[in-house]
Amino acid sequence: MPKPRVLAAEKPNVSLMGRWFLAGAAALVLMMMAQQGRAEDENVIKSHGYSYFGNLDYPADFSHLNYVNPDAPKGGEIALSASGTFDSLNPYSRKGRPAVLTTIQYDRLIESVDDSVGQYYGVLAESVEYDSERNYVIFHLRPEATFWDGTPVTAEDVVYSHRLFIEQGLPSYAQAVKVLVTGAEAVDTHTVKFTFNPDVSRRSLIETVGSTPAFSKAWFEADDSRRLDEPRLEVAVGSGPYKLDSYDINRQIVYKRRDDYWGKDLPFNRGRHNYDKIRVEYFSDQTAAFEAFKAGEYTFRTESDPKQWASSYDFPKLNQGVIVREAIPNGNPPDPSGFVFNLARPQFADKNVRHALALAFNFEWTNESLMFGLNSPRSSFVQGTVVEAKDVPQSAELAFLETLGDVVPDAFLSEPVTVSHVSKPERVTDRRNLRKASKMLESAGWIVGDDGVRRDANGQTLKIEIPYPSSIAASTVTMIETYVQNLKTLGVDAKAEKIDPAQFTLRSRERDYDMVYSTRYGAFLSTGGGLSQMYGSKEAEFSLFNPAGLASPLVDAIIKESFETIDQAELEAALMALDRALRFEFFVVPDGYVADYWVAFYDMYERPDPLAPYALGYLDTWWVNPDKAAALKAKGAFR
User: How is residue 4 annotated by DSSP?
Assistant: First the structure.
């Protein structure tokens, strides 16, 4: 049945000023006058949640999220796998390799939901208050919220956490938020106020400060060595539903559900956090991980390797029904993965060179020969959505682009959107595409010498080194190696380098590569500060989320104007223009995508029906059937 829709603007607030303590009789008089003024101000909005356009699908008195089973049983364990290594329990540092899932130990003021885009509801905050111009936001904290050491979560903790991310957080985040937020203050024990820069867009302000994890100020201040920007094997005190139970470096980490979790009965949390334990087993590579799954060392697997999905799931436990294998529809746009050019490298400065090098990638052969025909081709950063750019700009998108002025090239308005080239699937080298690429490279000054290697006028080879971690799927490795082989055929001084995961992490952070196969970029269905971190110029030099280092005035202008859209139609036009611009800049050679989630699990897990459209939710909303689990355990099906 359709969900009820309510406006976020429920009523003017008349209570906040009563929270302020002002000394002296004159101050009290001023407070009463201000309180009366606030009561008469119809532009102050107080709500149980937030969305930029004011729409909230869940009313203030909602009992649970629509995509959960509110009566899901609690108990049991889900055991997962991870590849590579870890040497830190701090997920917010640029250094080290943090263990997976460490963020589940921390609550936030507000959190998004998985059945809509851009809607947030209170967790630590019981209500959100802001003026219609979004010059400030006030979060009223739940008095019952506590950290796992029993101390209350206070406004001071929230302010401290905000400042910690500004001073010690990832530079791309810290620099962006520092510009947006001019003030953070604890009004009283359970009231925190953020004031925003009047000269920036109102978009993405409230959800940015509201989505910051809350840490215990007392825990950090008890030891000067505790920093957000340093790796450590000590967990910062949190208030979330799970807490670290045990770990064994590079082998295993276990989280335990907190029986004393303060928020377990919140409507937002009903039917969620159902496992008693979440265990993660680490393996050196995907082959070892798959064999361990068959042996019962862990119990739930998300598959990413098409070859393995098509050819390896034929073993006794699957045939006996002990393990279930399913393809579940994925409502998200696919990640814009592919081969990313490091745009700081001089050999990639010419976009025609990048297009020529892309022609050496044969998706059609790769899909049929390596991926068993399970991948679909991708051109767009938002493939298959309403904001995917098509043909030439028209209607609302064209009108949006025309407002941007000279930053938009004439060709951008008149030429069809960039789409991926098509290759012949019969052989790995498509000679027609390679001939075309050769001509383009020669026109750009990259000439083939007697040794078959291309050089520029200065005698420099067209060098491309592609590092990759030893832990990735075998089919991905083969895809990288065959692309490199085609590049060599083209006369490129190309090399693929297999390195250990820790070294790959370091090189990725330092952008020490010519080209890299990456899944770091994200698709988008809304706008906000995250777009600037991935695709904006200000953070391009150091952002971990922008592996190409893309810095485009055109993209910047579109993102900036997307912040100013006033309704969904305008927003969609802006996002369509952004998709067109990202494809125009051409900094990723797209690979394919799979439209489903691929999962395999021991037949004791159950899930809501239907699932949320934008999340698989196996960690969040699935649960263990205790009878099935006991029967499998009695058979010795898993560890």
Answer: P
List, for residues 181-205, the tens digit of each pLDDT value.
999 999 999 999 999 999 999 999 9
Burial of 605 (0-12, 13-18, 19+ CB in 10 A): buried
Three-state DSSP at 631 gives helix
Contact, 577 vs 393, CB < 8 A? yes
> Closest by alpha carbon to 66, among 145, 110, 119, 129?
119
Q: Residue 552: how many CA atoms within 13 Å on its side-chain side?
A: 25
pTM: 0.88
The H or E element containing residue 562 is: helix 553-562
Contact 469, 504 (CB under 8 A): yes
Q: Is 152 exposed, middle or buried (0-12, 13-18, 19+ CB in 10 A)?
A: middle
Residues with Cβ within 8 Å of 101's Cβ and at least 6 positions away in sequence, in order, are 253, 255, 278, 280, 619
Alpha-carbon distance of 219 to 442, in angstroms, equals 61
Residue 110 CA to residue 212 CA, distance in Å, equals 9
Interior angle at CA 319, CA 316 and CA 323, nearest 5: 85
Distances (CA, A) of 167 to 115, 170, 483: 34, 9, 42
- What are the tokens at 107? 């609550």
DSSP SS3 for 39 = helix
Q: Are 425 and 366 in contact (CB under 8 A)?
A: no
In this structure, which amino acid lies at residue 619? Answer: L
pLDDT in tens, 551-608: 999 999 999 999 999 999 999 999 999 999 999 999 999 999 999 999 999 999 999 9
For residue 73, whether the previous peptide bond is cis, meaning omega lies within 30 degrees of 0, is: no
Please, which residues have CB within 8 angstroms of residue 457's CB and are 6 or more apart in sequence?
Answer: 445
- Rounded CA-CA distance 462/347 in Å is 7
The two tokens of residue 584 are: 């125009």
Strand extents, DSSP E, 489-538:
493-499, 515-518
Structure tokens at 464: 């491309």
Contacts of the segment 568-572: beta carbons below 8 A, 24+ positions apart: 568/53, 569/396, 570/396, 570/400, 571/526, 571/527, 572/386, 572/387, 572/396
